[in-house]
Amino acid sequence: MSNWRDQGPVTDEQLVAYLDGMLDDDTAANVEREVKLDRKLEARLDLLRRGDRQFEEAYGALLTEAPEKKLQEILKRVKEPPPEVVPPELTRPAPRVVGGPAQIRSEPWGGWRVLAAAIVLLAVFAGGLFSSRLLELPGSQPQMASDTWTKKGWRAAVAEYQSLFITQTLENTGKDAQQRAEGMRAVSEYLGLDLTAEKVTVGPLQLKRANVLKFGGKKLVQVAYLADGKTPVSFCIIKGKRKPHDLKQEQRLGLNIVYWDSDDFGFMVIGDVPKSELDRIARTLQQRVS
């Protein structure tokens, strides 16, 4: 008969699954025993539970270094390139064509490379901020989370995404009631869960938009709000079999979180608002959509 200590060392993936309530009873009990016996493992579990702000600080530096004005100038240079000056005594060599006349000559830094770089940078910095690959881009396909995020767990990934939101990210969106309703219909069909703008609107939150996402192969949606017109708050739902539990609280990247699970969905409300207020909002949403 095998002993419980024969199950091997506890991995970060198991710790994340333990925090998300996704382990079976025997495996969860094994993790708890190991944590009690190993102080380093206990510290690791606490670190995963608390999170950090390094991700936001890194992107904050990028925001400073690449303001929108500079990026717009890059695009302008791509659309209206200055004329090339060729010294009269030099003769430009004929372009080398590979693979037939339809192929475009390659240059080290110009043409499509500049355009592609500018578009990517603008997607990052000009208005709609993003985090890794968890991002709504134009088109109907949901965006994927990176493998690194998958190992951390969905709440950690959402916290990193949410930490990049500022007032300006959302203040100019969601002004059309019809668009908000259509967005909610789209996420409702995507998840297979009855969601309407009326159900997910809780004062003082102002509904702004709904995003279709994907995390670890599971369907994920984000309903984004501004609280009192200035503080970004998100209500996120992930689809997948889970171990039901009532509301719990935690903090990641300095943001307060209230989360709960049903049999088929995980729910969380996240934002830089007081715990008591976030708990009230979460309980209202739990009653309406769980």
Overall description:
The structure is a single chain. The chain is an alpha+beta fold and 290 residues long. It has two domains: 4-50; 131-289, MucB/RseB, C-terminal domain (Phosphorylase Kinase, domain 1). Helices cover 43% and strands 18% of the residues. The protein has twelve helices and six strands. The protein has a six-stranded antiparallel beta sheet with strand order 1-2-3-6-5-4. The longest helix has 15 residues, at 177-191.
* β-strand amount: 15-25%
Helical amount = 40-55%
**What is the CATH superfamily classification of the largest domain?**
MucB/RseB, C-terminal domain
Q: Could you give a short account of the major beta sheet?
A: 6 strands, antiparallel
Cα distance spanning the termini: 42 Å
Report the top-level CATH class of the largest domain. Alpha Beta
Give the number of DSSP strands. 6
What integer is the average pLDDT?
75
Number of helices: 12
Do you know the CATH topology of the largest domain?
Phosphorylase Kinase, domain 1
The best one-word shape is globular
Regions with pLDDT < 50 over 5+ consecutive residues?
52-59, 89-93, 95-147
What is the total domain count?
2
Question: Strand order, biggest sheet?
Answer: 1-2-3-6-5-4
Question: What is the multimeric organization of the chains shown?
Answer: single chain
